[in-house]
Design brief:
The chain has about 290 residues and is an alpha/beta fold. It has 11 helices and 13 strands. The chain has a 9-stranded mixed sheet. It has a two-stranded antiparallel sheet with strand order 2-3. A hairpin with a 2-residue loop joins strand 2 and strand 3. Helix 3 runs antiparallel to helix 4 and helix 8 crosses helix 9. The N and C termini lie far apart (about 60 Å).
């Protein structure tokens, strides 16, 4: 059985959609309830069997690695004050996984961020997990892709169905059925116009990539914006080996978007036993006030 033990998380973006909050704080550290978004991504990777994680960062992102490091002063203070439960929660973070980092020195696209991970991945397949996607479901998102990879040993892309009005925001694929639970990718189009989109299946930020992607990306010319696009690389890879798609089961939240981020916070609060009651009361009161104002 083929397993994925390595994951790459690109985290070099500027987070301009969340300014001014991200002026001095990485967007990956913005919390969903009380946990940074990137920690949810790391935990999802671990639930899928990943052991080693590379975070591709940029300038001003040292806070991310600090979060996953030991915090002796804080932990000692929590113990001294008898806050054992909080201590265990904080201590657990530094023990989650083997986490490494590399800096992407220039913003040259997602394909370039993947190339930064070449030494880390070596000749092994690896997961690529974008931090903008936050998926709530019965099964971890990456674990669903890992099942297809275990069967096929080939590149797998996470997919979700979007409204026709939203297709121009995503990479869109044309597919054909391969077997129950998976599809075969026949074409990938980056941010097409709705009238030109081959389907409404969008690439949603989870991939399992075979190491052949590196040799493809290093010879791929940049696009008009000077960036190396992973979508173009996968399109070229598809000429020499099958590429599969996995339509993700679960609800996806684009936490790189302000409204998606707010929705994710509300949904996670409602799933927390310690917050659900108060949250329901607040939402009921808010709904009543909005109806009254109308």
């Amino acid at each position: 059985m083929r397993r994925i033990t390595k994951a790459v998380i690109p985290a070099a973006g500027l987070g301009t959609r969340f300014l001014p909050a991200t002026k001095a704080q990485p967007k990956e550290m913005l919390p969903v309830v009380d946990k940074p978004t990137i920690q949810y991504i790391v935990e999802e990777a671990l639930e899928a069997g990943v052991e080693d994680i590379l975070i591709v960062t940029g300038r001003g992102k040292s806070m991310i690695m600090d979060h996953f490091d030991k915090s002796f002063e804080l932990e000692t203070t929590l113990v001294q004050r008898g806050k054992e439960e909080l201590y265990r929660e904080v201590d657990k973070i530094s023990r989650l996984a083997n986490i490494f980092t590399i800096r992407q020195k220039e913003p040259l696209g997602l394909g370039h961020a993947v190339l930064c991970a070449r030494t880390f991945a070596g000749n092994e397949p690896f997961a690529l997990m974008l931090g903008d996607n936050f998926v709530l479901g019965e099964r971890p998102c990456l674990a669903q892709l890992a099942e297809i990879f275990a069967e096929t040993g080939r590149t797998v892309i996470g997919l979700m169905e979007v409204d026709e009005s939203e297709v121009s925001r995503y990479g869109i694929v044309r597919t054909r059925e391969a077997a129950a639970g998976k599809v075969m990718i026949e074409a990938l189009v980056e941010k097409p116009l709705p009238a030109e989109a081959p389907s409404r299946l969008a690439i949603m930020g989870r991939y399992i990539l075979t190491p052949e992607i590196f040799s493809v990306l290093e010879t791929l010319p940049p696009d008009q914006g000077g960036e190396i696009q992973l979508t173009d690389g996968i399109s070229r890879l598809r000429r020499t080996q099958p590429v599969y798609g996995c339509v993700i089961e679960g609800e996806n939240f684009d936490v790189g978007d302000r409204m998606g981020f707010i929705r994710a916070n509300v949904e996670m609060a409602l799933r927390r036993p310690d917050l659900r009651g108060e949250m329901l009361e607040y939402l009921a009161d808010l709904g009543a006030r909005v109806r009254h104002e109308k």
